[in-house]
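Q: I'm a student working through a structural biology exercise. My instructor gave each of us a protein and asked us to get a predicted structure, then write a short paragraph describing it. Mine is DNA-binding PucR family transcriptional regulator. I'm not confident about reading structure output yet, so if you can add a plain explanation after the tokens, that would really help. Here is the sequence I was given:
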Amino acid sequence: MTTPGLPLRQLLMSLGEPLVELQAAPAGLDVLVRDVAILDPEDPATAAAGELVLAIGARGRAALPALRAAGRAKAAAVAVKLDAPGQADALREAATEAGVALLSVRRETRWEHLDALARAVIGGPDTPEAAEHNVGDLFSLAQTTAVLTGGIVSIEDTSSRVLAYSRSADSAEVDDLRRLSILGWQGPEPYLSKLREWGIFQHLRSSDSVIAVEPHPELGLRRRLAIGIRAGAQPLGTIWVQEGSQPLTEQAEQALVGAARVAAAQLVRRRREVSADVRLTQTLLTGLLEGSTGPQSLATHLGLHQHRPATVLAYAAIGTDLNRSELTGLISVHTAARHRGALLAPIDTRIYVLLPELPTGLPMATVRAWAQEVVDAARNHLGVELRAAIGSTVTGLGAVPASRAQADRILDAMGRGGVVPEVAALIDVQAEVLVSEVLALLQERPALRDPRLSALTEYDARHGTRLGESVLAWLDALGEVRVAAQALHIHPNTLRYRVRRAEQLTGVDLAQPQQRLLAMLQLRLPADEEQ
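A: Happy to help. First, here is the predicted structure for DNA-binding PucR family transcriptional regulator. I'll explain a few features afterward.
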């Protein structure tokens, strides 16, 4: 259901630069926005009059059809994400030609958050959307608090990162701490050190009361009030009110107490929403890796391009003495440092990392180096030995299960032993993987085994002999008796005797190539698999 509409200018003021940036407005900023529409990348490019069209998954020039369709339908605006700065020029030109406003959305912004906030802003404060998502949330609270206190407000988290702030009509009223905090989204360390020295932060963490910070002109600081945001005994952040050219109102302290309580409720709800978002992401990612969920759900949820290269890394710890949470955290941090969009999912005993939207032509050596960094860090910092497998690079999210399957094949082969690297792609261990899979087949289907070789293994187990092991060493050495005997630490004549004895007991003719090949495979099975 549409509404009478909200001017694009007002929508942009409510959403603000943290979410979107205006790229073009050929029809001006007074065009009315009446509704929000999500354009799925697999759907035909359509729009309706007055809509804000969220072009999910259509990055860069791929958004051109959406712009043209929006222009034909007289939509209000189209919002897109840009892969590169240069893409804005072509899109601005297309938007101007189509007569529709173009908004660029920050890459970190989640589409569902923008959708919910835009609907709430357009619907007005009395709509269900506004009630559920608390339109304007902390920014709205900061502005309201500024009006009630007569000051300039900022809301920060426990690390002094700015979460929201009020608008100031006169920039001359803003002091250095406020200005630098807004520009850097975090208070500058020299000022923060002074606040710690004066005991301000200690008070804010331990008390519910308002504290005043007197002006320090030599430091560029004006007078301000502050209060901690708390949920019970847990600190959640702080609200700061800087005095401008006029003194703060008499009700400023009372207003701050109320604002802190409202902010606490909002931050608690935000944390719950983030937790729910993380759980949904994990569910969709696990479903994609296992092949039970299609790519569209995850792509839409995270704003990912479905048809960009992707690959899966798989990690497995050697041994069972392992702190899963520490290892998961380590892998997350190292991988995120190399690829912003990396996603992690523990499944059973393995930890998988999906690398979506990889640059076309990214060298395998680069991905291998990323995985090696994780393996080295796990050993150096956690004392954990890891194996890492690099799945195939696939053309899109739809083929991610195949990449994961290949990574699993590699880890399975690594787990069977042999000389393999810590980090491997299929090209590194092709032979080991194929032999591993043949052995797995022999394990699963005993009927495929040669009963004579099974009898030899049983004979060794009953009599404590090593005939099967000796035959395998001789075959691995291509019949070089001295080489095989040296590997077993026995005399060459002893080896010759054992090979003859094995042939006599089983009737296997090791002069036949096919029987040698089967013996080389079957005798690699663990002894308990043959009993």
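A: Here are two points you could use in your paragraph. The two ends are 71 Å apart (CA to CA). Residues 252-290 form the longest helix (39 residues). It's a good idea to check both against the output above yourself.
Q: Great, thank you!
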